[in-house]
Amino acid sequence: xxxxxxxxxxxxxxxxxxxxxxxxxxxxxxxxxxxxxxxxxxxxxxxxxxxxxxxxxxxxxxxxxxxxxxxxxxxxxxxxxxxxxxxxxxxxxxxxxxxxxxxxxxxxxxxxxxxxxxxxxxxxxxxxxxxxxxxxxxxxxxxxxxxxxxxxxxxxxxxxxxxxxxxxxxxxxxxxxxxxxxxxxxxxxxxxxxxxxxxxxxxxxxxxxxxxxxxxxxxxxxxxxxxxxxxxxxxxxxxxxxxxxxxxxxxxxxxxxxxxxxxxxxxxxxxxxxxxxxxxxxxxxxxxxxxxxxxxxxxxxxxxxxxxxxxxxxxxxxxxxxxxxxxxxxxxxxxxxxxxxxxxxxxxx
Length: 349
What we know:
Layout: E1 2-4, H1 6-12, H2 15-30, E2 34-35, E3 40-45, E4 48-57, E5 83-92, E6 103-110, E7 117-122, H3 123-142, E8 149-153, H4 159-169, E9 174-178, H5 182-197, H6 202-205, E10 211-214, H7 221-224, E11 227-230, E12 249-252, H8 265-270, E13 273-276, H9 279-285, H10 287-290, E14 304-305, H11 306-310, E15 324-327, H12 332-348
Parallel strand pairs: 1-7, 8-9, 8-11, 9-10, 11-12, 12-15, 13-14, 13-15
Antiparallel strand pairs: 2-4, 3-4, 4-5, 5-6, 6-7
Helix pairs in contact: 1-3, 2-3, 2-12, 3-4, 3-12, 4-5
């Protein structure tokens, strides 16, 4: 059995490959061929819990976009390879005083044809890369073609891969970083410049010149940004209506429990189109949307799931003046797809 630790996952899998795996899995989901049952948990006491999340992507053939009476973006579902996995996550609230991560985990990947265990992969690495790749797919389908400026809010465990996806999928000229603790934002800037930008030709990104700047406050440059990505653990919203404008694309991935939110209800209510990764998960866990209920927004205004856009069943963006929000809470079949791609790349070397 193959075992890939945190660093080996990153050495094996590029962001471009992860984005391709996520896009293929979303197509499978749109066809009803991706499965991720509700997670189960076992409490250990003292704030400790073990979560188990099985998931599968069944074999998918390439399909054409669904014919409609409206112009579609020309998306075509590529065939998705099958994947079968279980994600195991531990949450130990006392780990901070032990100088250990609060959330840890592993992904066990099985052979989808005969059930043999194929690999064990570091869960934090796969989760971070998968979440970044999902943001990349969302921006590829929802952002305005003219988007040149992005703002990344948060510099925690998810931020590096979120920023990598921004750079991979958009033709950026300016990337702003903001975090309440400035040293973390400065460290993220240095890591991106060293790991992602250094030594790669400007032409490879299509950028004239991409510069990264750390902000000391959320000021008028929030409205300047064509794309805003929030990846924080904030319990209360910090993006309000005065900070957003028409034409922006907002990707909110940080609030993953009902009591958490990053966007104020007025922002949700103002969105022209609003997409989620999974409707069932959003209704259970998306605090941004749950808190917006009764404050100018209702579930009937949900435009749909991102998978429907990727498969060509829904239009993502109709004009450059729309304010679009994508809210993600995570879905297990994307972990299975990305883990399978990592092991497949390792075998191809």
